[in-house]
Every structure is written in C-alpha cells, then in structure tokens.
C-alpha cells in the first residue's frame, strides 16, 4: 500500500441469528468470518438472545449488538445495515424467520434488515424435520428462492433431543465457505441443477503395503467436497464417494460413501454412475498398488529391504467414459506438473483426448498449489476444444465455474 492510500475495505457481513438451539454455532461462524478479514455485525432476534447473550456476540465481533429497531435510532440502523452490507447471512434461520422473510414482515431489526438488503442474502435453515417438510415451509422456501434469496439445504443428523433427520444446521465451516463464495461471486448458487443426479469422487486412495504403511498421495479431498457442496446447494441430488477425507464434514444435502483403495473406489463409482446424470472424477487415484500386502507390519532389519513389486490400478475415468450411457456427462480432473517436454496445459489437452471425457479440469500442482490448500486455479477443457481459465480463488468458486459449464448439458 502506497503512502497516503486508503486501507482496503473489509467485506461487510450482517450475521443474523435466529432463535433456535443451533444459535450457539453462530459464534463459530462469527469467529471464522472475523478472523478471515470480514467486518461482521451480528443482528440476533430476541429468541436468539435467550440462547446466546449479546456480550458474547459483541466480544467476538467488536461491534454493538441490537435486536430491536429502537436502539441507536439516530443512525437509522433498521435501514442502514441492509443498505451497506455486502452479504447478509442468517444462521440459524428458523421456520418462523423463513415465514417472516417470505411475506415481508418486519417486526425487529433483523427482518427490517432483510427488507432493505440489496446484496446477496443467504438463509441457512435449522429446524425439526417435520417443520422443514411442512407444506407451508416448502412454499416459503420456494417463494424466497424465486426472488433470488439463497436458501441453503439443511444438513441431516442429530436434532434437538433424541430426534434425527433433515433440518440440522450445516457446520460453521460450510456456512463460511458458502458466504465466501457469494462474496466472490454473488451469482454462484442458482438452482439450475434441480432434478439432476450427480456422482462425485473425492480424496486420495491409499494402497496398503502392510497394516501400517501405504502408497498414497497428498489429496485432501477439499475440491471434490466443494464440488459436492455447490452442486447440492444448486439443487442436485449428490452422491459423494470419498477416499480418506476423515477431517472434512459431510456437505449438507449430500449422500456420502467412504472408500479406501483404488479398487474400492472403482467399484463404488461404477455402481453410483449407473443412475447418475453427471459423473465427476475429482479423486486422486493411485496409479499403482503393491502386488502383495504384508499381513503383519514389515519389520526394519539391518539388511536392505526387498524391492516392492507394483502393479497398475485400473483407469477408472476411462472405464466410466467407456461405460457411460447416452446423455450422461463425464468430468475428469488432471493434476499436472510441467517438465522439459511440455507444460501443464499441453499435458491436460493430451489427457482429455486420451480419456475421452466431456470436460477436464486441469490443475497445476506442487509448490503449495492445488493439494492441501484452501484455494485453487486451473483450466476447464472441453471435448469441443473450448478452454476456460479458472482464476485463483476458493475451491468453491472453482466448483461453481465447473457447474456453470456442465449444468446446461446435465439438464437436457
């Protein structure tokens, strides 16, 4: 920053908090947003303040917290907050808040803010399954979405008391990821994948040498999870086949199947691909596996170890392309490094031709790129010769660009 220039403006986020038991998770959402460089103003309902006190939100945000329109009247907060926000997130959004938002009711500071906001609005529902599935709630959600409001799909899992089912608030990390995506790209979550079944693989396979050691790779699975998360929020039915991504929370609205080896991933992907409209191979599959895996841990001795004999794993992407039915779309991923003979993009073009898929996402890897990091970049190559750069940004942003390209073909 040059002398005399203004400091960059932090993105301004209004974090609304509804009066549900999941209100305590808003504290983690708030912490993650503020620590990642956002200016966050918390606007709770009176009900939310029965679960989490204003002092907690003020301490974490460094800003005052009010719930009613009669606080700080001279600054006209009930209008100003919505007008100045870059994003409004409401987490949790109760069934009552959904109904108020759908019908334009404004009886507190948060609902007034929703009426004045002209930025992206992300409502993250949390309620019991019966409430989420009630025709009134479904009608309210449809009405809000028709107006351009992003109503996220809730997660499934443990609810209040002994109940389980759909209606659980997604994990704070997921809410923050969707928030960051909408700040990067306000149009990133259209409902253009309604009725589309997507099968996605993610993570890195591990091929055992013995019960302790394995051959593997550095894939974290974050890009595959981002593809699944964005697809689900765009309306798709998503089946995610994940290899060794235990530290990642299952995305809301996604059906998860865990696998370990390349052979297990191959079987799972062939099975789920049979009913899928779109198949995405984002997993980093080990090219080779040991011919033999020791039953017991291989002991270290004074003599040199025996060579490890390897055999080639199946080319799962090529098999899925060969087995696809008419109209099915297949997307591959290529993690490449350049060398003295060709650069990353040239290797990607050759791989697209060799595999025969409809689309190929090419990532340059190494030196802190693609693997084990939060962000990504690359190119999206099409079988018809089109090449689209994917600028550096969050993995959710890259996922949204992929779905922008694939959605028109997936809905045919």
Automatic annotation (TrEMBL):
<feature type="binding site">
    <location>
        <position position="297"/>
    </location>
    <ligand>
        <name>CTP</name>
    </ligand>
</feature>
<comment type="pathway">
    <text>Cofactor biosynthesis; coenzyme A biosynthesis; CoA from (R)-pantothenate: step 3/5.</text>
</comment>
<dbReference type="GO" id="GO:0004632">
    <property type="term" value="F:phosphopantothenate--cysteine ligase activity"/>
</dbReference>
<dbReference type="Pfam" id="PF04127">
    <property type="entry name" value="DFP"/>
</dbReference>
<comment type="similarity">
    <text>In the C-terminal section; belongs to the PPC synthetase family.</text>
</comment>
<comment type="function">
    <text>Catalyzes two sequential steps in the biosynthesis of coenzyme A. In the first step cysteine is conjugated to 4'-phosphopantothenate to form 4-phosphopantothenoylcysteine. In the second step the latter compound is decarboxylated to form 4'-phosphopantotheine.</text>
</comment>
<keyword id="KW-0285">Flavoprotein</keyword>
<feature type="domain" description="DNA/pantothenate metabolism flavoprotein C-terminal">
    <location>
        <begin position="193"/>
        <end position="407"/>
    </location>
</feature>
<feature type="binding site">
    <location>
        <position position="287"/>
    </location>
    <ligand>
        <name>CTP</name>
    </ligand>
</feature>
<keyword id="KW-0460">Magnesium</keyword>
<dbReference type="GO" id="GO:0010181">
    <property type="term" value="F:FMN binding"/>
</dbReference>
<comment type="pathway">
    <text>Cofactor biosynthesis; coenzyme A biosynthesis; CoA from (R)-pantothenate: step 2/5.</text>
</comment>
<feature type="region of interest" description="Phosphopantothenoylcysteine decarboxylase">
    <location>
        <begin position="1"/>
        <end position="197"/>
    </location>
</feature>
<feature type="binding site">
    <location>
        <position position="355"/>
    </location>
    <ligand>
        <name>CTP</name>
    </ligand>
</feature>
<comment type="function">
    <text>Catalyzes two steps in the biosynthesis of coenzyme A. In the first step cysteine is conjugated to 4'-phosphopantothenate to form 4-phosphopantothenoylcysteine, in the latter compound is decarboxylated to form 4'-phosphopantotheine.</text>
</comment>
<feature type="domain" description="Flavoprotein">
    <location>
        <begin position="12"/>
        <end position="177"/>
    </location>
</feature>
<dbReference type="GO" id="GO:0004633">
    <property type="term" value="F:phosphopantothenoylcysteine decarboxylase activity"/>
</dbReference>
<keyword id="KW-0479">Metal-binding</keyword>
<feature type="region of interest" description="Phosphopantothenate--cysteine ligase">
    <location>
        <begin position="198"/>
        <end position="412"/>
    </location>
</feature>
<keyword id="KW-0456">Lyase</keyword>
<dbReference type="InterPro" id="IPR005252">
    <property type="entry name" value="CoaBC"/>
</dbReference>
<keyword id="KW-0511">Multifunctional enzyme</keyword>
<keyword id="KW-0436">Ligase</keyword>
<dbReference type="GO" id="GO:0015937">
    <property type="term" value="P:coenzyme A biosynthetic process"/>
</dbReference>
<keyword id="KW-0288">FMN</keyword>
<keyword id="KW-0210">Decarboxylase</keyword>
<dbReference type="GO" id="GO:0015941">
    <property type="term" value="P:pantothenate catabolic process"/>
</dbReference>
<dbReference type="Pfam" id="PF02441">
    <property type="entry name" value="Flavoprotein"/>
</dbReference>
<feature type="binding site">
    <location>
        <position position="351"/>
    </location>
    <ligand>
        <name>CTP</name>
    </ligand>
</feature>
<dbReference type="InterPro" id="IPR003382">
    <property type="entry name" value="Flavoprotein"/>
</dbReference>
<dbReference type="InterPro" id="IPR007085">
    <property type="entry name" value="DNA/pantothenate-metab_flavo_C"/>
</dbReference>
<feature type="binding site">
    <location>
        <position position="333"/>
    </location>
    <ligand>
        <name>CTP</name>
    </ligand>
</feature>
<dbReference type="InterPro" id="IPR035929">
    <property type="entry name" value="CoaB-like_sf"/>
</dbReference>
<comment type="similarity">
    <text>In the N-terminal section; belongs to the HFCD (homo-oligomeric flavin containing Cys decarboxylase) superfamily.</text>
</comment>
<dbReference type="InterPro" id="IPR036551">
    <property type="entry name" value="Flavin_trans-like"/>
</dbReference>
<dbReference type="GO" id="GO:0071513">
    <property type="term" value="C:phosphopantothenoylcysteine decarboxylase complex"/>
</dbReference>
<protein>
    <recommendedName>
        <fullName>Coenzyme A biosynthesis bifunctional protein CoaBC</fullName>
        <ecNumber>4.1.1.36</ecNumber>
        <ecNumber>6.3.2.5</ecNumber>
    </recommendedName>
</protein>
<dbReference type="GO" id="GO:0046872">
    <property type="term" value="F:metal ion binding"/>
</dbReference>
